[in-house]
Design brief:
The protein is of the alpha/beta class. The chain has 11 helices and 10 strands. Keywords: ATP-binding, Nucleotide-binding, Transport.
């Protein structure tokens, strides 16, 4: 009997030798990695390491001077953010980008605008054409997202009046409403208390495992990164210094120095314990 051949999962995202500079400042230097379909992939590193710059290159906000980004085998390096959204790349932001004067429901509906197929004429003939049925179908999907993120009680509230933790949840809801194949999360737990972090971590894992979304996440909370990530990449001064399983990455000497700021095993253990609190 021959050996069983295990086919590795297909890569949904391939980043090849990305370099990005602002004037004389190098934000990224020849960074490359791949993300498998269905993976929960974390990018970590010290402040200023280039993590958000990398996410901005993937989402289309920044155009790298060098390198290629492929999504599902397609070169998307020159595509606009809106175009990338239409083919299945969604994202959240480190700083909240909600419409504060709009309701939670309307903020989430904004995330579905590119999925609307009705034209101007059918919109004008709302009650006679298909626009009404289409809106009702979108509303049902939005209500499913609201239930998933447990924000039913604030669905009609003005977004700007909500607590910080709830606003972060609403922003995630809007990104999910895009129905992305790949979702980019920029510090989804920043500024949250312990209970809010635990809830957000659960939502992210469920998005990945139950909703089938591939996740690329920037996160500073090392306890969360170690607990929920399948693989981790570490950036330092715009360069990739480690890539692998969470435990392997945390044991990497360069990661100890760059991210934890320590050099020997005892100091590393103490720093990891502190990060996991």
């Amino acid at each position: 009997m021959g050996d069983t051949i295990i086919t590795p999962p297909a890569q949904i995202l391939t980043v090849e030798d990305i370099s990005l500079a602002f004037g004389g400042v190098r934000a990224l230097t020849e960074v490359g990695f791949g993300v498998a379909k269905g993976e929960l992939f974390a990018i970590i590193g010290p402040n200023g390491a280039g993590k958000t710059s990398m996410l901005n290159c993937i989402s289309g906000r920044y155009r790298p001077q060098k390198g290629t980004i492929r999504f599902q085998g397609r070169d998307v390096t020159q595509l606009s953010p809106n175009h990338r959204a239409t083919i299945g790349i969604g994202r959240t932001f480190q700083n909240l980008a909600l419409f504060g004067h709009m309701s939670v429901l309307d903020n989430i509906m904004v995330g579905r605008h590119h999925l609307l197929r009705s034209n101007v004429l059918s919109g004008a003939l709302y009650w006679l054409g298909g626009a009404q049925k289409e809106e009702l179908a979108h509303r049902r999907e939005v209500e499913e997202i609201i239930d998933f993120l447990e924000i039913q009680h604030v669905r009609k509230a003005t977004a700007g009046t909500l607590s910080y933790g709830l606003r972060k949840r609403v922003e995630l809801a809007r990104a999910i409403a895009l129905k992305p194949e790949l979702i980019l999360l920029d510090e989804p737990m920043a500024g949250m208390n312990l209970e809010e972090k635990e809830d957000m971590a659960r939502y992210i894992v469920d998005l990945n495992e139950e909703w089938g979304m591939t996740v690329v996440m920037i996160e500073h909370d090392m306890g969360v990164v170690m607990d929920i990530s399948h693989r981790v990449m570490v950036l330092d001064f715009g360069r990739r210094i480690a890539l692998g399983l969470p435990a392997e990455v945390m044991a990497h000497p360069q990661v100890r120095r760059a991210y934890l700021g320590v050099a020997d095993d005892e100091d590393v253990e103490a720093a990891e314990a502190e990060a996991g609190r």
